[in-house]
Amino acid sequence: MQKTQATRPFSEIDGPRGRPFVGLAPDFLRDPISVLTEGFERYGDLVAYPFGPRRGPLRNVVVAAYHPDAVQFVLTETERTIGRGPSSTRVLGEMIGSNLMTTDGAEWRRQRRTLQPLFTPRRVAHYTELMHREAERIATEDVPGPGSEVDLHLLMLRYSLRMVGAALFSSNIDHIGPELHQLIPLTNDLIIARTTTPVRLPLGVPTRSNRRFERVHRQLYSLIDRIIAQRDGHPADEERDDILTRLRTARDPETGDGLSSQEIRDQTLLMMMAGHETTATALTFALHQLGRYQDIQDAVAGDGTDGTDGAGGTDPVSVVDHAQRRDTLTRATLLETMRLHPPVYMTEHAATEDIELGGHHIPAGTALFLSPWVTHRHPDFWPDAERFDPTRFLGAQDRHRYAYLPFGGGPHVCIGEHFALLAATVLLSTLLRHYRITVSSSEIAIQQTGNLRPDEPVLATLHPR
Ligand code: HEM
Based on the structure, what is the number of domains in the chain? Predict the structure, then answer.
C-alpha cells in the first residue's frame, strides 16, 4: 500500500458503538438495511461497524464504503488487494460446492474464463425467443382470468424458474418450484447462521445445526441431479443448445481443459439459485412500481408499440426486437427499480493486504461491505433519490460509473447481468402489452435474509388492455 501523509488510522473511522461484546451483530441480523442506512446518514461515506468487541484480540470491525470512489476501489481491486468475504464464501462453498461464487484467485479465473463466453450479450440474445415464449405462457396460461387478482411475486418466480429451466436444461422444471422456493430461504438462513456463529464446528460434528445444514445441502444436490437426469433421460428431437450442453463442451481458452461433471453440477446449481430469485424480485418490484404510477405504466406499455420507444424507431416493434435495444423506457424502468430495490442489497469483501480506503488505512484481513441499497440513494449522485423516475436511465448519463452497482462490478461482476436484464425486459413488455396492472398496497414489506425479497404476497389485479 502507498501510504500518503494524509492517511488516517483505522481507529479514526467513525461508526456506531453497538452493544458491549457483540457490537451491532444482533441489530444487523434483524434489520441490515436499517443498520447500513442509519450508519451512512450519521457517519457518512465510510463507516466502522463493530460486530464484536471494538478492541482486543476478539476485535471484529467491518468497514462499509458507500461513496462511489471507494466502491470503485473495492470492486476494481478485487483479485488484487481485495478478495471475497472469507467466512461467508467458505460457508457458501460448503453448501453449494466449488463454483464462480465460492472461489477466487487462479481457480476462479479458470472457471470464469471457461464460462464467460456463454454469457456475452450476443450469446445471450439467442435466448430472447425462448424468453418471449415463456413470458407469453405466463400472460395467457398462468393469469387466472380477466380482472383476476394475482400474487406478482409468485407469478414472477414461476416465469424466472421456467426461463432458467429452459435456458439451462431445455426442460420444463415447474415441478421443482415448490421445493426450490422452500429451499432458497432455508439455505440463506442456514448460511447466515453458520457464517455468524462465534464457534463454527466442522460439518462432520453431528450437532443439530450441522445436521440441518447437511440435510439441506443433500436436498439441493438431489434436486439438481434429478433435473439433469430427467433432461438427459429424454432424447431431444434436435441438438440442444442449452447452457448445460455448452458447459459440457466448454473449454478453458488458455489450457483447453473442460469442466468435470462435479463442476458442472456445482455451476448449474449456482446459476439456478443465483439467477432465478434475483430476476423474479427485480420484476416483482418493477411491476409493483408500475402499478403505483399508472402514467409511467402506460408509457412503458406503449414503449416499442407506437414508435416512441426512445430508440428513434417509428414503427411498432415486436417484443423480441424491442428487447435487443438498449435505450428504451422498459429497460430504464428495470434499472430504476433495481436502483431503489437492488435484489442484492449488500456484498461482502475483505482486504487481503493493507490498503487505503476513503483516506483511511485498512489493515489486511478487514471485512468490507458495499451496499447498492445505500449508494443508490447517495444524495450527491441521486437527486431526489427516493423518487421513482426511470428517465434517469434514458439518454446520455454522466454520473459516476460506480454510483450504480446492482450487478456488482470489476472482475467479479455478475456473469448473468445481460441474461437477467433481457429476460426481465421481455417479461415486462409482454405482460404490459396484455394487461394494465393495479396494485392493492403501495408498499411491499421486505425480507432481508440473504437477498432482498417480498415478505408477503404482492397482490395485484391484471386488467386486459
Ligand atoms: C436481477 C438479477 C441479478 C442480480 C441483481 C444479480 C446480482 C449479482 C451481484 C451483485 C453479483 C456480485 C456479487 C459479489 O460481488 O459478491 C453477482 C454475481 C454473480 N451472479 Fe448475478 N445477479 C442477477 C442474475 C444472475 C443470473 C441470471 C445469473 C446466472 C445465470 C447470475 C449468476 C451470477 C454469478 C455466477 C455470479 C458470480 C460471478 C463471479 O464472481 O465471477 N446472476 N450477481
Answer: 1
